[in-house]
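pinned: reference chain
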Amino acid sequence: MRKVLLINPPGINPYIRDCFCSHIAKASYIWHPLDLVILSGILSVNFDLKIIDAVASKENAFEIIKVIKKEKFFAVICLIGNISLKEDISFLKKIRKVHQKCFIIVLGDVALHKKERLLKKYPFIDGCILDFTSKDILKFLNRKNKFANGKIIENLIYRKNGKIIKGKRKSSSKLFTYPVPKHKLFPLSAYKLPMQKYTPFISLLTSDGCPFSCKFCPASNEILGFKLRKIENVLEELDYIYSLGIKELRFRDNTFISNKNYSIKLLNSMINKSYGFSYSCLTRVDTVNEKVLKLMKKSGCHTIQFGVESGSNKILNQFNKRTNTGQIKKVFAVCKKLKINTLAHFILGLPGETLKTMEKTLALAKQIEPDYVSFNIAKAIPETQLGKECLQKGWSQQNNLNINTPQLSFKDVLRFQKKAYREFYLRPKFILKKLIKISSLMELFSNLTNMLNLFFKAPKKSEWK
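pinned: its C-alpha cells
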C-alpha cells in the first residue's frame, strides 16, 4: 500500500493552522488540525498513513525531513498558514530537496484564499486542496496515466502537464459524509483547551461552511457555501469515539446550531444513545433560544463559544452580522441561568471602529460576564468583502492583512487588545468567580497558566495610550 504523510509542520511559534484562518496561540492551548483529521479518514481507504503534528508534538524540521527521506512517501499533504507562510514554504522546499518524486499538496487558509498565486510562485507545490471534506483528493492521487480522461478534478487546484488546472470548491449535495477519521494516529494527549473538562478530547464536524454572510468572515456562505453532514455519519463517528473511552468533544462547526430541525434531531439522538459526552461548540446568539439551550445542556454541552464581535450595534449592522447587543445580553443571561459556560469572541479594528466603539465592546464584555473572552484583531482576508474593501481603499496591502484606517492604526488596535485582555481577566471579581467554578486540578492548572500568559504579555498602563 502506498504511503501518504499528513503533516502540520513545525514553526518558531505555536501556530494554529486550519482551512479558515491561522494565528498564533495567545496562551497555552492547541487543538487538532481538523483539516488533517478529516482527511485521515478519507485517505485511509486507499493509503497507508503517517501523521505528524509537529506543533503539538514539538518535533523539529531536521528530524521530520530525515523521516521523509527514509520512508519515500507517495504524497506529502501539508497544512500551511498565512501566519506562518515563510516558514512553511522553507519547510516544503526541504521536502522537495530530499524527495523529488513525491506529490506535495497543501491546504489551509492561505491555500484556499491564495491558491493560484501559490502554484505560480512555487513550482514544487503540486496542488491545493479547497475542501478537506471532499473525497476528490482520491481522484488526484489514484489517477492513471496523468489524468487520461481529461476531466477537471473539483475541489482542488493542481498542475497537469505544466499547466495550472483550476477545479472549483463545490459539492454535488447539501448533505455530505466522510469515513470515520483515524483519531488514534494523532497525539491526542497534546491537545489542550482552557474550557475542556476531560482529557483527551476529540474535534469533529456536523457541518461545513456557514449559512451566514458576515463581511469579515472567510467561512461565509458567499465564499465556502454551506452543507450539513448526514446525522447517521455523525453518529457513526460518535459511536467510534465512545468505543475509545473518550469523554470530551469539541464540535468545530463554524455555526453548530445553524439548522434547528437538524440540530434538534442530532441532540436528541445523542441523548437517546446515552453517550455521556461532555462538549463545547461555536454558534451565534440568533440561532439559539432557551429551549434549544436546555437540549444542548442535556446532551452534554458545557461551553458555548459565541461570535459576539462588537459592543456597537452600528458596527454589527455595517458588517452584516444580523445580531444586536440586546440579543447578546439575553442569550448570555440564559446560558448563565442554565449553568452553561460561555466564551465571547470579539473583533477589534473593523473599518468604522474608533477608540469609543472599542470601549463599548470592552464594556459589553464585562457586562455579559462570559467565562472566557477572545479579543481578535480584524484582518483584511483577500476573498472576504472586508478584504476587498480594505484593499480598494488602501487600508491594507496585498501581502499584509493588517488594517490601518483614518480612525485607527493597527498599532492602536494592538495596544487596545492588550488592554482589553488585562482589564477583563485581571478583575478581582472575575478571578474569584473562576476559582469558585473550578472543579478539577487540570482545570485549575489550565486557568492559572492561561491567566499568567495574558498577564505577562499585557502592556503596562503607560502603554495603553
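why pinned: The chain has two domains: 3-166, 193-463. The chain has a mean pLDDT of 91.
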